[in-house]
């Protein structure tokens, strides 16, 4: 970074004084000249560059060269005595050749250097061509080097002075030289060394002999150096060093107050130190430094503000004296235009311990004191505080922020900007209130009350008075008495007494403002929301009970208590309810002149009661607010208004503490002495509920319900009312709010004579029953059909209306009595079905056109006896094999777990379609509970029979044989073999020999059967043994049809036959023998 | 020796504050109140790592120009704050710790009193005595 200034060639630079060669007789007049820093920053250059347009091959080279040399000479003369470097830049139109190639150029460059007395390093060429930026950057670097060399020599020069100095007379110069070295180092952009020299300078400053006359100078210089050190530390990213340096600085300087008459000056200086450091810190943060909650610029701004406050106080004390001084005598003392930093204008350059002119000194001090009076102290303080607030907000210090805002508010109060003061104080008051710091709240309220008084803001004044009289206030009894007196004055539309510690001048203004307020007709009525404050009147209200029956009067109580020292009277108390029609019953107003009063600390209870409207049954009545009127129409009416059932900002916590308290055990005793305020709990709402019914509803039934049956529930309603119950209505059925599917599968009807259909509803609403006289009884049956199993809740709701009198008012009350019952629905019986062959062997597939058996089992699951009235089959594809299908179940009673079985012989005809799975049909059972009345309807339960898999048999064989045989008696067996295919079948048949039989007939035969025709084979079997005997095995094979073999055919044939033993012949001989 | 000793409830309202009667009492109230910012921050910083055994002593909360404020938080989140004059360099960290420990013990005794309702302000002569012992003798 280079600071560059464009100046004309003949610019006059500051003259250089002749350098001192010896310091022997020199006595320095001060530490640092006020002009020095500006001179080296802005006036004296490190390098002067002369820009001259000249090409190497310029035709007028000679002339131009000498002109350039003259210009350089002019600059040189002007800079006589300085080490400032001079350089020349030739601005050329042509692109230069690479170095060494242009011989003309190098020759002319040498001559130019010679004539200008320049070194080769100080001559540059700036071709005005394409790569301008690149050339400029290179030039800049070259200039930077030259400048650094300049500052290096300057540092060397200042350092060289050191050997001439002696410690007794030149102490000031030690500081000055170190400071200059450091400053030059900084200009040289050597910040590390700069920091080092500044540190030495800092310690040297504090080695100076300090006395009252030079204290300001020392502090000023110390402040400068400290600022530089801190800044460099932050720049080097060593913030801890900066903070440590600053702390050291403050600790060293804190006590260096200097002249006690100008103590405010010291406070101002301290404030400035903190302020500057805060700014440095803040700047460093903006450049990326991270600060923390406990170390952020806010603390420094806060401290700066604190010193400003000190300054203000000191100024107020010290500047009283100067007030009477005639201003004309002060004219000759000018402040400003100093030669040295931190000196007094009336004795510049004076370094002796005693002031040279005591009179002048006095005048000077007075002048400064008078000037101090014009300083906008509060503005300065507020600005610093608001800086601090912004910081603390950023670093999560809400309480610190609040504290500073209080200070700001107080400062605005001192600056007489009461509106702003109140705004700030109001804002933070709430924080202190919720955190329950009563001491601090009281202090803030006191200031706020003063503001409100001085502004004559009636509403604010009343609010602050109320809170200062309240239980959170930590004021003394005396102060409270005074405030209450003032409050009463305001209520009477009178002017309150001024607050103590208000300044006299403002009081006059306030008084006239109050007079205006008194006179103005408006604003006599004030409503104050007190819920969020801690007012001096506490209010709690409650409904006696969380619910009231409509035929009872609703009772509510309002408890009031005051915390102020004197009794306070009020003129009206009103409770506002959610239904405004009731409000008229909840008002108490004083009659005539007599007002109601509250004694300090004595709770007072007001009772209200009213009768709810019958329309409000089932509704909630809520307290929406409570209003208490203080004052009267003649003076000022102030309505204190609570939302809901009262309470305030502190009451929740108090209630909690009271509930925790161990004292509650002893509350019985306290209750006798009087009401315990803390134990009063608020109840802000109540329900109006219907009158208690005096009606009994009884249910009788026999659970569980059976699926699909008409389940009978008997309801007995008996009135126990003393008067006639009118419009009795019954609602019966499924209780709403259950599974939606239940609504679809439940049907309720009053008609039990037939089975209801699906159109019957799940809930029968409002079945009129008529009137019921006292004591009268009524019965009804309700039939429920549950299509699905599971448990259901049924509701029986009897509603009626009745005339009643509450507190002399006639009302028609609607009452209802509910009865619910949970009923389980179960399956009445289980039906199982199986297909078996004519040999009672289970079948997995059914052969077409061959008879088989269907067997059904009905197993009762009902806990109650079931009556099975009849059963039937509804066949789809099957035919019965018997001419008339007759049910075997007629009027059968099944007990629990009993089973009823049936058997049907069926045959499946040949079907046209090739489907090999067919539906069989349905099995229908008509039944009812055994216990139900004889005329109650029968329930048809249909059981879908399983599908059967069909198979076709190519060859069917069946045997025709007697049911039993007898030993040694021939029995004839005829086998029918039927070809069911459309092909001619060749059949090989053989009968295997058997031990139990002799037989006659073809033992082995081979025959052909035409399509659709039948072949009969007759055998005569002659049993040899008695008992169950296996018939001789018939082996059949079909060579043409390989799928059918002996085994598949054998299933159609009987395996065994029972053979009876040979009976003794009842011949004549034996009879004769007998 | 301390110039102000305070006990703050879990909900951050004061249970006990005692400062040197010679000095501006209100200022100490503000000092203690503002120090709660740092206490809260320190507590919440610990809360993040679960199962971390927190040290009750929080150390120096923040230095003001004139005072040093130290904090201590019991497991039930009751805070103790001790304010010490900045010029008092004789007090070491260890001594502050032992002051807090003493205070905590005495506070525990107060809580053990069956007639004391936790959450109420502390009104105990013994506690007063312990606190007085830790304060600079006025004058």
Automatic annotation (TrEMBL), chain A:
It is found in: Golgi apparatus, cis-Golgi network. Residues 214-470 form the Trafficking protein particle complex subunit domain. One of its GO terms (biological process) is vesicle-mediated transport. InterPro entries: TPC11, TRAPPC11_C. Keywords: ER-Golgi transport, Golgi apparatus, Transport. GO terms for cellular component: Golgi apparatus. The keyword Transport applies. PANTHER family: FOIE GRAS (PTHR14374), TRAFFICKING PROTEIN PARTICLE COMPLEX SUBUNIT 11 (PTHR14374:SF0). Belongs to the TRAPPC11 family. Involved in endoplasmic reticulum to Golgi apparatus trafficking at a very early stage. This is Trafficking protein particle complex subunit 11. It comes from Gasterosteus aculeatus aculeatus.
From TrEMBL, chain B:
Its main location: cytoplasm. SUPFAM superfamilies: SNARE-like. The keyword Lyase does not apply. One of its GO terms (cellular component) is perinuclear region of cytoplasm. It is found in: Cytoplasm, Perinuclear region. Gene3D superfamilies: 3.30.450.70. It comes from the Eukaryota. InterPro entries: Longin-like_dom_sf, Sedlin, TRAPPC2L. The keyword Heme does not apply. Keywords: ER-Golgi transport, Transport. GO terms for biological process: endoplasmic reticulum to Golgi vesicle-mediated transport. Pfam families: Sedlin_N. Belongs to the TRAPP small subunits family. Sedlin subfamily. This is Trafficking protein particle complex subunit 2-like protein. It comes from Gasterosteus aculeatus aculeatus.
């Amino acid at each position: 970074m280079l600071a560059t200034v464009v100046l004309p060639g003949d610019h006059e630079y500051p003259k250089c004084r002749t350098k001192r060669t010896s310091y022997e007789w020199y006595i320095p007049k001060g530490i640092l000249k006020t002009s020095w820093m500006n001179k080296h920053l802005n006036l004296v250059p490190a390098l002067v560059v002369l820009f001259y347009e000249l090409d190497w091959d310029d035709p007028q080279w000679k002339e131009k060269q000498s002109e350039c040399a003259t210009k350089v000479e002019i600059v040189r003369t002007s800079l006589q005595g300085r080490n400032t470097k001079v350089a020349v830049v030739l601005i050329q139109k042509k692109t230069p050749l690479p170095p060494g190639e242009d011989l003309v150029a190098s020759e002319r460059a040498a001559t130019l250097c010679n004539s200008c007395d320049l070194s080769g390093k100080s001559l540059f060429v700036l071709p005005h061509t394409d790569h301008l930026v690149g050339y400029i950057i290179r030039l800049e670097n070259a200039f930077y080097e030259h400048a650094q060399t300049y500052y290096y020599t300057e540092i060397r020069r200042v350092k060289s002075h050191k050997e001439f100095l002696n410690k007794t007379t030149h102490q000031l110069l030690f500081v000055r030289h170190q400071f200059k070295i450091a400053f030059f180092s900084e200009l040289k952009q050597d910040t590390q060394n700069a920091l080092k020299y500044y540190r030495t300078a800092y310690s040297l400053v504090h080695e100076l002999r300090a006395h009252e006359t030079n204290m300001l100078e020392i502090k000023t210089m110390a402040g400068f150096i400290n600022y530089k050190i801190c800044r460099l530390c932050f720049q080097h990213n060593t913030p801890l060093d900066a903070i440590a340096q600053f702390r050291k600085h403050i600790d060293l300087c804190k006590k260096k107050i200097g002249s006690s008459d100008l103590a405010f000056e010291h406070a101002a200086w301290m404030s400035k130190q903190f302020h500057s450091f805060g700014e440095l810190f803040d700047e460093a943060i903006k450049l990326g430094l991270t600060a923390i909650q406990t170390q952020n610029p806010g603390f420094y701004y806060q401290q700066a503000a604190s010193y400003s406050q000190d300054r203000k106080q000191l100024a107020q004390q010290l500047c009283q004296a100067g007030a009477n001084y005639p201003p004309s005598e002060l004219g000759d003392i000018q402040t400003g235009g100093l030669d040295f930093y931190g000196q007094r204008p009336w004795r510049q350059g004076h370094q002796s311990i005693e002031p040279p002119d005591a009179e002048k000194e006095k005048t000077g001090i007075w002048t400064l004191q008078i000037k101090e009076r014009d300083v906008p102290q509060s503005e300065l303080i507020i600005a610093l505080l608001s800086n601090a607030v912004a910081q603390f907000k950023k670093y999560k210090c809400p309480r610190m922020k609040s504290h500073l805002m209080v200070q700001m508010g107080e400062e605005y109060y001192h600056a007489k900007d009461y509106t702003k003061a109140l705004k700030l104080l109001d804002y933070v008051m709430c924080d202190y209130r919720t955190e329950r710091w009563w001491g601090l709240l009281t202090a803030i309220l006191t200031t706020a009350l003063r503001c409100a008084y001085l502004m004559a803001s009636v509403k604010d004044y009343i609010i602050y008075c109320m809170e200062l009289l309240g239980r959170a206030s930590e004021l003394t009894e005396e102060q409270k008495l005074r405030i209450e007196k003032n409050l009463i004055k305001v209520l009477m539309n009178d002017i309150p007494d001024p607050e103590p510690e208000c300044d006299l001048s403002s009081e006059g203004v306030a008084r006239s403002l109050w007079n205006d307020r008194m006179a103005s007709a408006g604003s006599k009525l004030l409503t104050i929301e007190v819920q969020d404050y801690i007012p001096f009147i506490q209010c709690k209200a409650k409904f006696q009970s969380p619910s009231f029956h409509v035929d009872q009067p609703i009772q509510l109580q309002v408890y009031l208590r005051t915390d102020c020292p004197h009794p306070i009277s009020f003129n009206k108390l009103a409770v506002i309810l959610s239904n405004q029609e009731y409000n008229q019953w909840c008002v108490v107003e004083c009659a005539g002149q007599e007002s109601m009063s509250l004694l300090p600390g004595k709770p007072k209870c007001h009772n209200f009661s009213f009768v709810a409207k019958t329309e409000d049954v089932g509704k909630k009545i809520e307290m929406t607010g409570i209003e208490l009127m203080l004052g009267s129409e003649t003076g000022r009416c102030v309505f204190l208004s609570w939302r809901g059932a009262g309470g305030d900002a502190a009451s929740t916590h108090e209630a909690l503490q009271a509930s925790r308290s161990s004292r509650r055990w002893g509350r019985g005793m306290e209750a006798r002495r009087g009401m315990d305020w803390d134990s009063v709990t608020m109840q802000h709402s109540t329900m109006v509920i219907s009158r208690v019914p005096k009606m009994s509803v009884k249910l009788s039934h026999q659970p569980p319900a059976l699926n699909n049956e008409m389940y009978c529930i008997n309801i007995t309603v008996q009135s126990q009312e003393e008067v006639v119950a009118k419009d009795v209505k019954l609602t019966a059925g499924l209780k709403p709010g259950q599974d939606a599917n239940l609504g679809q599968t439940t049907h309720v009807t009053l008609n039990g004579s037939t089975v209801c259909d699906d159109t019957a509803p799940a809930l029968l609403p409002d079945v009129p029953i008529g009137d019921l006289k006292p004591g009268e009884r009524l019965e009804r049956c309700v039939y429920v059909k549950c299509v699905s199993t599971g448990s259901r809740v049924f509701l029986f709701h009897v509603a009626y209306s009745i005339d009643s009198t509450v507190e002399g008012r006639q009302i028609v009350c609607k009452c209802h009595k509910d009865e619910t019952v949970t009923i389980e629905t179960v399956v009445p019986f289980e039906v199982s079905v199986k297909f078996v062959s004519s040999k009672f062997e289970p079948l997995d597939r059914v052969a077409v056109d061959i008879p088989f058996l269907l067997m059904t089992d009905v197993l009762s699951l009902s806990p109650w006896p079931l009556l099975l009235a009849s059963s039937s089959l509804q066949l789809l594809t099957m035919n019965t094999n018997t001419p008339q299908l007759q049910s075997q179940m007629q009027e059968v009673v099944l007990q629990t777990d009993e089973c009823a079985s049936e058997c049907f012989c069926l045959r499946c005809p040949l079907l046209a379609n090739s489907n090999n799975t067919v539906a069989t049909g349905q099995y229908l059972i008509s039944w009812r509970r055994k216990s139900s009345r004889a005329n109650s309807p029968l329930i048809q339960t249909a059981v879908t029979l399983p599908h059967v898999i069909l198979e076709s048999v190519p060859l069917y064989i069946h045997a025709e044989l007697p049911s039993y045989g007898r030993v040694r008696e021939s029995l004839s067996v005829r086998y029918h073999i039927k070809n069911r295919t459309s092909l001619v079948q060749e059949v090989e048949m053989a009968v295997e020999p058997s031990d139990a039989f002799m037989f006659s007939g073809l033992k082995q035969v081979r025959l052909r059967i035409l399509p659709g025709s039948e072949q009969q084979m007759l055998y005569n079997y002659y049993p040899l043994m008695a008992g169950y005997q296996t018939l001789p095995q018939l082996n059949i094979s079909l060579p043409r049809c390989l799928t059918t073999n002996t085994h598949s055919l054998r299933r159609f044939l009987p395996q065994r036959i029972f053979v009876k033993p040979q009976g003794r012949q009842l011949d004549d001989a034996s009879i004769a023998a007998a | 020796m301390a110039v102000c000793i305070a006990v703050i409830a879990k909900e951050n309202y004061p249970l006990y504050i005692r400062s040197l009667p010679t000095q501006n009492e209100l200022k100490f109230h503000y000092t203690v109140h503002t120090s709660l910012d740092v206490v809260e921050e320190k507590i919440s910083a610990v809360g993040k790592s679960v199962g971390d055994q927190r040290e009750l002593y929080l150390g120096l909360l923040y230095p003001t120009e004139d005072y040093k404020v130290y904090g201590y938080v019991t497991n039930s989140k009751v805070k103790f704050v001790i304010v010490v004059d900045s010029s008092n360099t004789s007090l070491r960290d260890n001594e502050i710790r032992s002051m807090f420990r003493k205070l905590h013990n005495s506070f525990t005794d107060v809580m053990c009193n069956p007639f004391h309702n936790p959450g109420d302000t502390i009104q105990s002569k013994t506690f007063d005595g312990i606190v007085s012992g830790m304060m600079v003798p006025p004058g």
